């Protein structure tokens, strides 16, 4: 028999059994309460994650829209001394675009050659001084094209030196 049943007084066994039953009920209530708290916390975390995803998506969309608006505003803002009609001009097509690109290429290579080592922002500033109203994106694209063709050498991000100094055939 168990050691609790060996006690001669039945009252002592009942007290011990009652204490254990009471403790078991309290622990059962605590376990249910804790399980409810865990469930609520898990639901709270899910809601917070969903909110974070929504806010992140909205922030990304806002940033893309802001970037697009800034670019459009930059594209629409006339250069110093420019005419209002320049806001609505159409981009050059065919031979005009090739001529502009060739002009940019010559200006860029001459500038980099004279500087020995220079930055993209200095190149853009120089070309815009020579060709008021020229777009940063157009100049930047030409710098990238010259670097791809080996006419400029990219030392690090945004830093260039002159590359192959032979005249271009195309």
UniProtKB/TrEMBL annotation:
It comes from the Bacteria. This is Uncharacterized protein. It comes from Streptomyces lichenis.
